[in-house]
Specification:
The chain is mainly alpha-helical and 126 residues long. The protein has one domain (2-125). It has helices at residues 33-50, 52-59, 62-71, 77-88, 92-100, 102-125, and strands at residues 2-6, 12-18, 23-25. The chain has a three-stranded antiparallel β-sheet with strand order 1-2-3, covered by helices on one side. Strand 2 (12-18) and strand 3 (23-25) form a beta hairpin. The radius of gyration is 16 Å and the shape is elongated. 19% of the residues are buried.
Length: 126
């Protein structure tokens, strides 16, 4: 059994949450892969803000949820960065969720910097 999660702005994220924690992404639109991933993040954000007590409980675990989405390759680094950039330009109520995700976004930025440093050291040693 799957429950459809609607993305904000009337768009469909193409995101499906399976019972038992199984997650799948299925695009129903001509959007790019990154746009679909951003819509997944927006749908999660909407659930957290409009999903009642259950949704509110997820606000406390935004960083672990984002880590899981990244580790399982459901959402790419590029999609997280694009989502964060969009949120930085939003009004204060929209930026609140970005603040909840700050530990994850900091980790993601640091991991990208370490990866770049490691790649440059490897190319210098060749």
């Amino acid at each position: 059994m799957f429950v459809k999660i609607r993305a904000i702005r009337g768009q469909h994220a193409g995101c499906w949450r399976g019972v038992g924690g199984v997650g799948l992404i299925q695009s129903h639109t001509p959007y790019s892969r990154i746009t679909t991933q951003i819509n997944l993040l927006l749908a999660f954000e909407e659930y957290c803000t409009e999903g009642g007590p259950a949704g509110a409980a997820f606000q406390a675990i935004v960083t672990p949820v984002f880590s899981m989405l990244y580790d399982t390759e459901l959402v790419s680094e590029e999609a997280f960065v694009a989502w964060a950039e969009e949120k930085q330009l939003a009004d204060a109520s929209e930026r609140r969720f970005l603040e909840l995700a700050k530990p994850f976004m900091t980790w993601l930025e640091e991991a990208a910097e370490e990866s770049e440093e490691s790649e440059s050291e490897e190319s210098e040693s060749d």
